[in-house]
Every structure is written in structure tokens, then in C-alpha cells.
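Agenda item 2: zinc ion complex prediction
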Amino acid sequence: MLPLEDYRRYGRQMILEGFGLPGQVKLKEASVAVVGAGGLGCPALQYLAASGIGRIGVIDHDVVELSNLHRQILHTEATIGMPKALSAAKAMAAINPQLKVDAVVQALSSANATELLGLYDIILDCTDNAPTRYLLSDVAVTLGKPLVSGAAQRFEGQICIYNYGENGPCYRCLFPKPPAQETVGTCEETGILGAVTGVIGNLQALETIKIIVGLKDQAPSLLLFNALQTPPFRSIKLRNRKPACAACGLGAKTQGMIDATDYVQFCGGPPANWVERGL
Amino acid sequence: MLPLEDYRRYGRQMILEGFGLPGQVKLKEASVAVVGAGGLGCPALQYLAASGIGRIGVIDHDVVELSNLHRQILHTEATIGMPKALSAAKAMAAINPQLKVDAVVQALSSANATELLGLYDIILDCTDNAPTRYLLSDVAVTLGKPLVSGAAQRFEGQICIYNYGENGPCYRCLFPKPPAQETVGTCEETGILGAVTGVIGNLQALETIKIIVGLKDQAPSLLLFNALQTPPFRSIKLRNRKPACAACGLGAKTQGMIDATDYVQFCGGPPANWVERGL
Amino acid sequence: MASSVSLKIEFGGGLELLFANQRSHKLTLPALVPSDNSTAHSPPNLDPDTDSATSDDAPIADGWKRVDVTYLLHHLRDHLLKERPELFMDKETVRPGILVLINDTDWELEGEGEYVLKDGDEVVFISTLHGG
Amino acid sequence: MASSVSLKIEFGGGLELLFANQRSHKLTLPALVPSDNSTAHSPPNLDPDTDSATSDDAPIADGWKRVDVTYLLHHLRDHLLKERPELFMDKETVRPGILVLINDTDWELEGEGEYVLKDGDEVVFISTLHGG
Ligand SMILES: [Zn+2]
Ligand SMILES: [Zn+2]
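Presented output:
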């Protein structure tokens, strides 16, 4: 089932109760798409790569900048200017040469998302903007795949698994209408403590591994993190899938909606600094 | 105060409220000792290195093995056989060439710990055995320095800051007597999920950064993590420093105790597999 | 039923910036409030020994209701909010992108705005984050 | 005071392995128990209308005490533990390396074994971890 070397490499997790050889084989046969190789994507990618997952797609069209390095720990001064997807792929190859990595240097859009993400079993949302979060949720619904979604700003983070299990809600079940532009900050504007993205991205990898191995329960929940609060973590019991949801509800035509939606306009158009950044 | 390049590199965290330029300068002037460059040490080192801390000492006498790579994400197949302290130092130099790294390939003992750790402001316990945990706590008390202590086994983790603030307890305040040998498992025996060490090590880096910047409150607490439980995190309110503590209590002669203690014998002698491992 | 309820209110995800940058608030609201959610009025003047009139099955005077989350929203907007109410409320509910949590449960499972507040309840308002 | 207390018990850090590998347990203990912590006896036979005899200020019969954490330890060892009691208890307390938490607070702040259990209390037993 597994090469002898894998027993040595993954032995410490294969002796875990509820994991074992079957768990390791499931990881090897699994494929995961990580959208965004930034503050959340880097720690998620590194623990997914180390765990023995068979195939990882990393999708990001940005290039590495100096201002990323305080938190995006797969990138280095040597890869400044390189597309993040390639820089991350290089780092993952060093961690685990047996891993198959698909580095996709493309912006995700209505036009390509369903096809690109259809190749993988699970999708990780490690992005940094509202339009892509809505797009990813709609695509996860169309494809019938779980979406392990992380977010972080300032000293805070959130993690939630959408479209998972019998009754799990999608992002639109929780947030049917996008927030107004002026209520949405970015890490560029509001700041971010690097280790906070680390905690959330790391938890995204952990939840993904739990889903693949079969250790994840299906009760919808949201985990909130605030690095400055006591207690720092708070677990929330979430609503089920909503029958009236425009994306995952009864009779929803999700793929048609994806094709017809300009997600940036849906979220209020590009903010000033997106135009500057050439998005 | 800071080179111009640092404003670009650390800008995203310098715009955080309560952080700012003073916070970044404090990081640059700070020094941290990380004892253990394994499952907890790797993520802690990586986020400390990226954050802009001035000097990091990494202390570990083990060498990188294939069975480490599923969780010890600074080491690679290329560094198998290399001392972990050197392998980690190499990875940190790639993340942040401005960082001063002291790689110490030595086993920590009663004889060298006080001198070695006296060079740093804060100590991280990223070790994997009871004797070193008692030794580190006693040394932190002697030196009057906070000890950011992490531990992980199976699907569980714990993080606690000892000897911190006016009334913070030391490890001996909580655990005056060492547990019997047969109650103590190691990651080799009980297994460990890599992403669990990631979460705890990452949180150790975060707590260390909070202490340096001045964002950490002093109420003694313990954070428990179980990857398979809902909710996964639990925060515990801990006792204060105990006046009768053998290490940090009134009239305790801590350095004398360190000099006189054989910590391995104190914890019940070397277990069978330590002897095999040549410790 | 007491004549008032004590609540713990928390803001997160940046919403605290609208409330004097304070994350935690303690609040006491009257048990009976105007049905139109106007927060300027006092509750109906109840004699201490007519307290039983506010018991669970007792009829409530026209124009009044038991204090619920919708009233709480109005109270927070009218009395605690420091700036830009449109960043907190949109018509009679929270603006898009805000999640309301009652005792660590999504308010959608508790009846949303119609949830009747109980003494000691904790209500959290959290803005969804988009950064990464 | 009711004649029994319901408790939530949790084990972690590997201790659950001693308790049929079950982390969470629900437990009901009598409000009054033998002072010597023997768990074989029944509580004193109280007539329903002498219930007031167990009220907080009422005198307690010789040889009995209000149920406390020390009694809980004995009960867990005698009735729930599946193997190797020395890995759970050492003399009259928990063995070294176990932390006891009462409602998310270190038991040392609550009186340790002498803490009198209240209905609804949650008691967690956690073994300290050493791995890394
Ligand atoms: Zn939906
Ligand atoms: Zn002490």
C-alpha cells in the first residue's frame, strides 16, 4: 500500500488512534487546492505538504514582495519578484519531494474557477478579499466540495468549513449580501500580525487533514480567534444550510449564477487600492 | 531608529494599534532562546524569525531524521543527518538574513543551562521530555526570565507561560513532584499529528511577541487544545506563584538546587528508549 | 420575571472601533420595551408589587414587548455607538457582513431579532474578516 | 439543597485511556457522603420532608460530609476507572502530573480536594504533556 520509506517518514502520525495506515493512504490519495499563497496559504501549504497528501494545487497570481516576508513564511528574500505560487511550490518540494504540486499562476475568476478547482477533493480559501470568497463558496457548492475558509486581520482570525456534510451552510447562507465596500479592510490597510495568520492557516491544514482522514464531525461551527483576548478562542454553533440560499438552496442554479456574476461588482466594485495594484 | 527597508518589510505589523514603531524596535532589540528545534521549535522559530526579533538562540543536540519531517517543517530531506540547530539556523537565514542566529549544538544540562540561557530575554520550552522541562523552569526562575512553554502529544497540545509577571507560577508551582516514568509518553511512543505541534509552536511565537511588545497581560493561564474536540480550545485560570515552591518560593536557593540536581534521576531515571537513543 | 435584564455585549472583527474601541460592555435593559423599538422612553411604570404583571404569561400592555435582540440593536445604535451608524445597522437589522451570536450560538438558530433576552445573556457582534 | 449533585467530568492529556477511552462523563453523586470517602455506602436515608436537614446551615450527622472533590476522586477510582489506579491517584489525591480544573479554574484556587461540589459543576482532569 505504502512504500517502506513512508512508514518511517509518517510513522509518528500512523501510530495515532483513528489514523493508522488507512489514514495515511487516504492522505496519499487526496488532492487539495489552496487558493492564495500568502499569510494563510503559507502555513497551510507547509503542513499539508509535510503530512503526506498526494497532490496540492496552489493558485495565486501575485508576486512575492518584501512586505510579505514578515508573515508569508514560505517566501524568502531570494524569491522576491517570483510568483507566489512558484515560490511556494519550491518550498514545498524541499519539504516533501514526493508531493505532486500544481503551481497555478492565474487569477481565479468566474471563467476558470470551476474547471481549475474541479481537479481537487477539498478547497482551502486562503484569499484576502470578499469577491474571491463569494466566488470560491459558489464554486465549492457547484462542485459539491468542502471549503476550508480562513481569514485574518489585525490581531484576529476566523476559520469555518463551508458546504461540508449533510447540512453544512455555504458562505452565502451566512452572508447572503456582501458588505459595503467601506466596511471591508484589507491587511494592507488594517495591518496584520504574522503569527495570527500562522495560527489560522495552520488550523486550516489541520481541519483539512481531519476531513480527509475521517476525523471531522459535521456540526457547523465557526472558530473565532483574538490574540489579545482572554480566552483567545471562541467556538460558535452555526446555522444549517438554508433552503432559501441563492447558492446552495433548493432549486438554486449555482453554475449559472457563477457564469453571470461579476464578483468584484457584486461586492461594490474595485476599491481604490485595487486599481493601483492592477487587479 | 530602523533602517528604511524595515518600514517596508514590517509595515503591515507596524500599523497595528498598540504595536507601531516602538513595538518593532522592541522586537529588534530583543533576544530569545528556543530550546528544541523539533515539532514545536520549528514553527516557533519561523514566526519569531519573520517578525523582526534581533537575536535568536536555537539549542538542540539532535540530528534531523526522516521521521521528523512530517511535522518539523524547517528541516528537509537535504538536511537529514545535520544537527537540528544548524538546519533550523539555515532555514531562518533564508527567511530573514538580518536576524542574528546562535545555533547551539549541545544538550542542555545543569552544568551549562544557566550560562547559555542567561544571554537571552525570554526562553521558549519546545522540548520533548520531563527532565528538561524541570531544568528549564528552574533556570528561568534563577535568571528571572519568562518561560513560554509548549507541549504536544497525539491530538492534544498545551501552552503556558511560567515565571511571568508579579505573581506568575513556575512549572514546579503547578507540578512540585515529577510524574512517575510510566505515566509519561513521548511523541515516539504515543504519536503526534504534525499540525498540532504547528498550532502550539505558532502560539508560542505569538505569546513571545506579545510579551516583548508589551501586549501580554499577567494573569496566569493555561491554554488546552484538542484537535478532535468541540470546542477545540479551553482557557484555564491558574494559581499564582506559591510561597512554598521549592524553586520560586520564599527563601528558595534555586541555583544551588540546579547545581545539585540530576534532572533525569529526579524524573525517575532514563526510560529504556532513552538508553537506546544514547541520551 | 425581573423588571430588567443584565447583558454582556462583545464586539469583534473591527466593530469595536465603532464603539469607542471597547470590546466588552455590560448593559442593563428594561424587561419591557416599546414595540416600535424607540429607545427614548422609559418602561411602563410598574409598582413593585405589580411585578407579577411582567411574569411570562401575564398580558403585556399595548405598544410594549419583552426586550429582544432587535431592541438591543436600536439601543446600541442610539446610545453606545460613537460614529457612522450605517456601519452597524441597515434598516431594522445588522448590516451585511455582521454575525450576531447569542451565548456562542448563531442568532439564526435562536430566532434572530425576535429572540427574547434573558438575564445574563451574552451577545456578540462580529464582523466577518476578509484578509489573509 | 437538593439531595444529589449532577456533574460533568472530562479527562484529557491521555487520562481518558484509563477511563474506557471516554473523555466526557456525566455523573450524579449524593449531596452527603461518608467522611472517610468510602464509596460503598448509600447516603443517610432522608425522608423527603426532612430535606431541609441538608440545607446549607443544617448540622450534618457525624461521619458524613458534603460531597467534595476528594470524594469525587474516590468515586472515579472505585467506579469508573478501568485499570491501574496508581496512574490516577496517589494516596488521597491525584498522582503527580495531573491538574484538576473546576469550571475552567485550577482547583488550587478553589480549595483543592475540599471544594464542595455544586450541581452543574464541570471537573476536568488533565495530564500534563511532555512531548514536542
Ligand atoms: Zn448556501
Ligand atoms: Zn514555583
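Discussion summary: Residues 69-80 of chain D form the longest helix (12 residues).
Owner for follow-up: CH.
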